[in-house]
Structure formats: C-alpha cells, structure tokens
Amino acid sequence: MTTANPDLAALIRTIPDFPKPGIQFRDITTLLLDARGFHASIERLAASAPTDIDLIAGIEARGFIFSSAMATHVGKGLVLIRKDGKLPGATIGVDYALEYGTDRVVMHEDACVPGQKVLLVDDLIATGGTALAAVRLLRQAGAEVVGASFVIDLPDLGGAEKLRAEGVPVTTLVSFEGD
After folding, report:
1. Is residue 1 part of a domain?
2. In a domain, 154, yes or no
3. Domain count of the fold of the chain
4. Cβ neighbours for 161, distance < 8 A, ≥ 6 positions apart
5. pTM of the full predicted structure?
6. Residue 93 pLDDT more than 80?
7. Residues in domain Phosphoribosyltransferase (predicted)?
C-alpha cells in the first residue's frame, strides 16, 4: 500500500541520468535536510507499522537512516543488514542475483532469535533484490518478517509486488511512476 504524501514527494529531488543515462535517481538527501519532512516521514512510517513487532531491521546504507529513527521512535532494537565483510564477529548471509553477477547481505548470527517479529525498513524499493535477500536472511535466522516499510516505491520495477508475493505486507509513503 502506498499512502499519498505529496508534501514528502515534493521534498525528494530527482536527478536525471544518475548513475547512468536513462535513470531518474530519487534523492532522499533533500528530504533529510528538511527537519519537518524527515520527522513526518518517520511519524508516518511508524503509524503504518504493525504494532506487534520486536525489532526493526535496516538495510545498508540509506536504510540505516530511516530504520534507526523508526527503531528509536517505536522503542525497538535495530538489526543491521549489511554487505558482506562489513560486520565484525560471526555472521549469517544470503547471496542474491544482480543484473550482472551476485551480491551478499549478512547480519550478526545473534541479531535476532527464532520467532521474533521483525519489520524491514529501507529508503526505497525498486527491483526488490536486496529487500528479498534481507527477508530471506531474517527468515533463515528464524524471524517472522511481519512487514516492510519504505519511503519510496518505484512500482514499475516490481520490487514491492515481489515482496508481497513472498507474503510480506509492504507499505510505502510515496511512489514515482515510470522509473
């Protein structure tokens, strides 16, 4: 479900042809610069979140901004999901396909315990590859992923639908068509 938030959408800058020609990059740094807009985005994400969660999980790197603010706002702990090689200590991981090649996301093996209810949070959902890998990683640890929240959805790229097909309810604040 995408909630209409034209005030927040207006704070997100579009940078054409970044990182390559034809891409319309949706830059959340302008939203972050606006204290009221950033606060409103956290308030609205929190209002749409399931109430029975145990933890918030955030995906590197911009997702850490929103997930840590959400975790503080709702009074829950924060699980960091990172690219391989970035966390000290014992980790578990999941490989996932990229357009050309593969990548891997990891988290500490003791970040959550079986049965904990986790909300996944990131800044943007596009093709869904990283978010799906994060869901699989959390489930591998025994967590129940009760939802995923994003500031931005690029619905034409299908990531939110892929998460829903995996049984994960998705909430987004704004969407940009055609990207």
Report:
1. no
2. yes
3. 1
4. 128, 155
5. 0.95
6. yes
7. 34-153
